[in-house]
């Protein structure tokens, strides 16, 4: 019986890897983020006090290249306090592409088909070989629950519409989703409105602005959560 129980739960196991980087905390009230380490270069945003950032390049004596959840830029090292003793491991920068290509689409279809096949096989093994009816029903129910959440997360296409705003002191005050792939962004730092194209991958909305990729997590139908440059909780009007 134990081997069937183990077989059931191996379906939900996964592995991951993490690249170590130095982590710093912002000490300024609002730390300007620039496109390059030139102090006269264009400002692309700011970070609030207490925000944690990963330093990608600390070779310059005055400016560090940093990475937050959804963007990269250069900031003054004088307003950063190191909170992680992990040494820097420099690696090639990864460029996030928000437009899903055909190869990625085919990969997703193959993944969904394999997942369905695995769930069907698990149900067959449970019904065919588990002698204990109570455990059989429990195991089958677990597989069906996992299948249901898989269906919600990977098969059902999420749709976002309407205007989401925040009442906090953040750079981005609102995101107005006008159509299937277009969002109007209110940037209080630049005092401007701009339009960007976005994609939804799972529970995450991705869009690009000023060569940075921004992320918004879909918490529920009326709440979006941003980190980094888009930090804040945005409620639907």
What does the secondary structure layout of this molecule look like, with pairings?
Elements: H1 2-9, E1 22-26, E2 30-34, E3 43-48, E4 52-57, E5 63-68, E6 71-76, E7 80-82, H2 102-129, H3 133-155, E8 162-165, E9 172-177, E10 182-187, E11 192-201, E12 204-209, E13 212-220, E14 223-226, E15 232-236
Antiparallel strand pairs: 1-4, 1-7, 2-3, 4-5, 5-6, 8-9, 8-15, 9-10, 10-11, 11-12, 12-13, 13-14, 14-15
Q: Output the CATH topology of the largest domain.
A: Lipocalin
Treating each run of at least 4 consecutive H or I residues as one helix, how many helices? 3
The SSE order reads HEEEEEEEHHEEEEEEEE
**Class by alpha and beta content:** alpha+beta
Helix content: 10-25%
CATH architecture of the largest domain: Beta Barrel
Strand order of the largest sheet: 8-9-10-11-12-13-14-15
How would you explain this protein's 3D organization?
This is SH3 domain-containing protein. There is one protein chain. The chain is of the alpha+beta class and 237 residues long. The protein has three domains: 22-82, Roll (SH3 type barrels); 99-155; 162-236, Lipocalin. It is 25% helix and 37% strand. It contains three helices and 15 strands. The chain has helices at 2-9, 102-129, 133-155, and strands at 22-26, 30-34, 43-48, 52-57, 63-68, 71-76, 80-82, 162-165, 172-177, 182-187, 192-201, 204-209, 212-220, 223-226, 232-236. The strands form three sheets. It has an eight-stranded antiparallel barrel with strand order 8-9-10-11-12-13-14-15. Strand 8 (162-165) and strand 9 (172-177) form a beta hairpin. Helix 2 packs antiparallel against helix 3. It starts with a helix and ends with a strand. Mean pLDDT is 75; it is low at 1-20 and 86-102.
